[in-house]
Each structure stands twice: as structure tokens, then as C-alpha cells.
Amino acid sequence: MVSVQILTTPSCSSCAAVEKMLDKMGVKYELIDITKNPEILQKYPIMAAPGVVINGKLEFTGVPKEKELAEKIKDV
Asked: How many domains does the chain have?
């Protein structure tokens, strides 16, 4: 089973776009608010939200194309 985490910030419209894509694909995910968990930035040093982590690997920063996101999840 694939593990997906979205590294997010409050009121992040780009993060909401990624959530919507994953919901459409039927993929479960975990939201991690980096303002409440700044230590996560030591593991995944992103400069802009969202960060999309798939099975422990930072795969995207920003909003990926839906096709690219689906392919990454499918390939796992």
C-alpha cells in the first residue's frame, strides 16, 4: 500500500489542489502542517508548499500535473 503525505501550510490553495487530485484518485493521504511540525523540514527541505512525499521520498514540490502524480503513485 502506498503512503502519501502532503507537507502543507495553513490556507495553502496549492495544497488543496493536490488534496483534490488525490481524493479524485481515491488515494488516502496524511496532511502534515509544517508550521506546527518544523522539524519535518530537516528531512524534507522544501522552500514552498506543498511537498508531496510518497513512501518516504519527496517526489514533488508545488502542484504536480495530475498525470505525473498518478504515475508516481502507480509505480510504487
From this structure: 1
pTM of the model: 0.92
The domain of 47 spans 4-75
Angle of the 66-75 helix axis to the 13-25 helix axis, nearest 10: 50
| Contacts (Cβ under 8 Å, ≥6 apart) of 51 | 6, 7, 34, 44, 58, 60, 61
**33: CATH:** 3.40.30.10
Q: With 0-12 CB in 10 A as exposed, 13-18 as middle and 19+ as buried, what is 52?
A: buried
3-state secondary structure 6-44: EEECCCCHHHHHHHHHHHHHCCCCEEEECCCCCCHHHHC
pLDDT means per 10 residues in the chain (76 residues)? 93 95 96 94 92 96 95 82
